[in-house]
Amino acid sequence: MEQKLKVGILGATGMVGQRFISLLENHPWFEVVTLAASPRSAGKTYEEAVGDRWKMSTPMPEAVKKLVVFNVNEVEKVAATVDFVFSAVDMTKDEIKAIEEAYAKTETPVVSNNSAHRWTPDVPMVVPEINPQHFDIIESQKKRLGTTRGFIAVKPNCSIQSYTPCLAAWKEFEPVEVIATTYQAISGAGKTFKEWPEMVENIIPYIGGEEEKSEMEPLKVLGQIEGDHIEKASLPKISCQCIRVPVLNGHTAAVFIRFAKKPTKEQLIEKLAAFKGFPQDEKLPSAPKQFIRYMEEDNRPQVREDVDYENGMGVSIGRLREDTIYDYKFVGLSHNTVRGAAGGAVLCAEALTAKGYIAAKC
Length: 362
Fold this sequence. Notes:
Helix content is 27%, strand content 22%.
């Protein structure tokens, strides 16, 4: 790419906003030029606005420290400075829906980490290796919004990343039932142990709204476009429990699965290793070379050892074995704030750019 696209980050001071900034440092296609946050941060430099709340393990990039933060509500003003935006705003669902549509109507593409538009019928919810064809629905969305280049695309919830790729890799064996329990890191709530000391040596068996997302969102990802909307898949039936555990980064899933066509263990492992998609074919900058890896060791994957596989963009699967009630069971691991949040959105933006949906405004 001859000239980098100009990027804005909405909700830049929060944990996911910070992750966007870290991931986009020295990105070959994108340059962060505008940061926007709540009115209380507006007018301050980014360094001042964040203060002692920088949560990444790497230092704040020098390039953003002196950028003056915009008021995220000044939509036209922010949109005039960028080619597209990433959205990680912390608002009510209705407020997020409204502000993301407002940005799209300024002819500014919005790639969102938020859940507000995941079930808007003409908004694609994409894991780029699995369903990049869903970006085709953007043309219907543009007609509804009355735009020529503005639209909204979203990535799915962080909790589904450690098992939904397997469902896609095993599609030909027709998964019909899935039981999953996810063990979710505290960074999924935007927290560190310093901010959430009650999570030390603790487990909380409830995460608001997470089980519904974990059961339903894979079905939209695995669905298909029908007319002006995306129709969710009818199978597999998914039941999920979501538990908060004392881990900083990394969502682990323990999964039981039943197939209509029972494969061998060797076939399942072969399909995982061979599974790839548009990001790998196009060699997108953030794409993992090996999206899914299978680990033979009995005690893997582990968060400490494996959460950063492929720079946090890969998925690790292990302990695949036959079950006494279901056909098979396995354990999956994914990085919740990289693949599951900001990194997944960056990969979506790269795919949208490669497909021509995102380009320089002038």
